[in-house]
């Protein structure tokens, strides 16, 4: 992330384009991760060694099980690697065939998300706003939250997260356009390094959102939803 000293938030825009995931790869329906009891115990032992070396006393009632709890929390936070087969459900649009109309946006947000930055394995967290212009299919509103969390619960970076959400929605329902707006705080800059308490904003555009008027409409709605 590049910090801009002259403004409190960082703003990065992704250009339209990009390659959508291949739906045949079943990226939303990945096989669950399998970790054996032997692996789990080895990981727990390694974490206990690290925590002890860094100064934690693991012989107290409050810390004795901390390595195990840490591993379980880490496993839960990265559950996005297990996929979400419920994302495969979509529905036909309800406008009649051949009906001409101005592009109509479906907008959802704010959707809360939490991630682990792949650079330092520290959390970053914030809100997502998603808009799409339907083609022949629509997706249930709750599926947009599922889509965000599928990609958020991984080791990632904010720029990639927005790209994956946009391209994932394209792979699922092939809409005429997609917009994704993310705002997040990063602990890797809050608690280490420059210790700057800024927020980072990224925006991704696809398809018909090349139109500046649609972009302005989306961003105006984001501001309204944020205030609400």
Automatic annotation (TrEMBL):
Its EC number is 3.5.4.16. Keywords: Hydrolase, One-carbon metabolism. One of its GO terms (cellular component) is cytoplasm. It catalyses: GTP + H2O = 7,8-dihydroneopterin 3'-triphosphate + formate + H(+). It is an enzyme of class 3 (hydrolase). GO terms for biological process: one-carbon metabolic process; tetrahydrobiopterin biosynthetic process; tetrahydrofolate biosynthetic process. Pathway: Cofactor biosynthesis; 7,8-dihydroneopterin triphosphate biosynthesis; 7,8-dihydroneopterin triphosphate from GTP: step 1/1. It comes from the Bacteria. Residues 45-222 form the GTP cyclohydrolase I domain. GO terms for molecular function: GTP binding; GTP cyclohydrolase I activity; zinc ion binding. PANTHER family: GTP CYCLOHYDROLASE 1, GTP CYCLOHYDROLASE I. This is GTP cyclohydrolase 1.
């Amino acid at each position: 992330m590049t910090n801009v000293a002259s403004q409190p938030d960082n703003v990065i825009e992704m250009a339209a384009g990009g390659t959508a995931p291949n739906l045949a790869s079943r990226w939303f329906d990945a096989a669950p991760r399998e970790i054996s009891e032997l692996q789990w115990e080895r990981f727990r032992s390694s974490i206990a060694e690290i925590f002890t070396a860094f100064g934690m006393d693991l012989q107290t009632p409050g810390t004795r099980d901390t390595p195990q709890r840490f591993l379980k929390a880490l496993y839960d936070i990265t559950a996005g690697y297990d996929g979400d087969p419920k994302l495969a459900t979509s529905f036909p649009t309800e406008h009649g065939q051949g009906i001409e109309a101005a592009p109509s946006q479906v907008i959802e947000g704010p959707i809360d998300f939490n991630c682990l930055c792949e650079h330092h394995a520290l959390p970053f967290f914030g809100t997502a706003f998603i808009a799409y212009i339907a083609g022949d299919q629509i997706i249930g509103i709750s599926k947009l939250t599922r889509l965000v969390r599928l990609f958020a619960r991984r080791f990632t970076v904010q720029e990639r997260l927005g790209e994956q959400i946009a391209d994932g929605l394209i792979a699922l329902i092939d809409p005429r356009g997609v917009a994704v707006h993310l705002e997040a705080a990063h602990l890797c800059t809050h608690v280490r390094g420059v210790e700057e308490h800024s927020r980072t904003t990224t925006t991704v555009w696809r398809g018909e959102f090349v139109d500046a008027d649609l972009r302005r409409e989306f961003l105006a709605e984001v501001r309204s939803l944020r205030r609400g």
